[in-house]
């Protein structure tokens, strides 16, 4: 809907600000306050302390944060590679093949992550592929969840690329591998970086499938936060959530910088 008058634009902006503040900013503010709350019996905490934040940056929370970061980096990286390969390979395939590939790669979006976790648990709990009880089953589950998003982002960018670029490079004598490396992939770098950012954020916050699959030595930070809140340790859970948000934001900033450089190229 187009807003032609200044008054309508002001009303729309004010309405958006109210909704954004209530739905997004207010919960985040409550988490930040809870992470430094010593006790909370009224509208606001009655006393402030850094005890919970200090506990969150050492011990189990830090170990879980390292596991989450490793899982996110590995799963997002593999998802970007596989998603890019599928998008580029299917671009020149017949229409029927493209539709099959698109439907198959988007299938995980049609089911909840808990279903993905249960499927992994049933499929990989017996030989010949025995992954249950290992960290690899968590990594595979995250990869399955992230792959549709990576493929969608890169495939959308692939459809906007001018196909004449590759044809011109081929007509000048460039091999297929050189066309892929020097022409196709460079123009897809911004989309690949964007899909990596999305994958990192999704993996860092994933809990549905992970809580069904994680072994004792590979517990991610969202699982730790869930366990703390389930035991009624809301302040400690909030402090760990602040740590999770900080790590995720730092990763997104790094990837955002890389995406900016890729766009300039």
Q: Beta-strand percentage?
A: under 5%
Order of helices and strands: HEEHHHHHHHHHH
CATH architecture: Orthogonal Bundle
Structural class: mainly alpha
In short:
The chain has 265 residues and is mainly α. The protein has helices at residues 6-35, 51-56, 60-91, 95-106, 113-123, 135-160, 164-171, 176-205, 210-213, 221-230, 234-264, and strands at residues 37-39, 47-48.
Would you write up a description of this structure?
The chain is mainly α. The protein has one domain: MetI-like (MetI-like fold). The protein is built from 11 helices and 2 strands. The protein has helices spanning 6-35, 51-56, 60-91, 95-106, 113-123, 135-160, 164-171, 176-205, 210-213, 221-230, 234-264; strands at 37-39, 47-48. It has a two-stranded antiparallel ribbon with strand order 1-2. Strand 1 (37-39) and strand 2 (47-48) form a beta hairpin. The two termini are 35 Å apart. The model has no long low-confidence stretch (mean pLDDT 87).
What would the keywords be for this entry?
2 strands, 11 helices, 265 residues, 2% strand, mainly alpha, MetI-like fold, single chain, two-stranded antiparallel ribbon
Give the topology.
Layout: H1 6-35, E1 37-39, E2 47-48, H2 51-56, H3 60-91, H4 95-106, H5 113-123, H6 135-160, H7 164-171, H8 176-205, H9 210-213, H10 221-230, H11 234-264
Antiparallel strand pairs: 1-2
Helix pairs in contact: 1-11, 3-6, 3-8, 3-10, 5-6, 6-8, 7-8, 8-11, 10-11
């Amino acid at each position: 809907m187009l807003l032609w008058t200044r008054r309508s634009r002001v009303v729309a902006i004010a309405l958006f600000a109210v909704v954004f503040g209530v739905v997004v900013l207010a919960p985040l503010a409550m988490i930040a306050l809870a992470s430094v709350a010593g006790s909370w019996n009224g509208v606001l905490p009655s006393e402030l302390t850094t005890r919970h934040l200090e506990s969150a940056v050492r011990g189990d929370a830090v170990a879980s944060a390292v596991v989450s970061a490793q899982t996110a980096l590995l799963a997002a990286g593999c998802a970007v590679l596989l998603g890019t390969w599928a998008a580029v390979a299917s671009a020149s395939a017949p229409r029927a093949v493209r539709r099959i590939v698109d439907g198959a790669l988007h299938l995980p979006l049609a089911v909840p992550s808990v279903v993905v976790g249960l499927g992994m648990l049933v499929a990989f709990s017996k030989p010949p592929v025995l992954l249950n009880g290992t960290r690899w089953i968590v990594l595979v589950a995250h990869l399955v969840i992230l792959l549709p998003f990576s493929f969608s982002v890169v495939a959308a960018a692939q459809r906007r690329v001018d196909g004449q670029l590759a044809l011109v490079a081929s007509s000048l004598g460039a091999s297929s591998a050189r066309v892929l490396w020097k022409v196709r992939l460079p123009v897809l770098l911004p989309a690949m970086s964007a899909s990596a950012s999305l994958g990192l954020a999704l993996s860092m916050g994933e809990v549905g499938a992970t809580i069904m699959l994680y072994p004792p030595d590979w517990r991610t930070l969202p699982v730790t936060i869930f366990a703390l809140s389930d035991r009624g340790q809301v302040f400690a859970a909030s402090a760990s959530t602040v740590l999770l948000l900080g790590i995720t934001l730092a990763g997104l900033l790094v990837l955002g910088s890389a995406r900016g450089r890729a766009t300039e190229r």
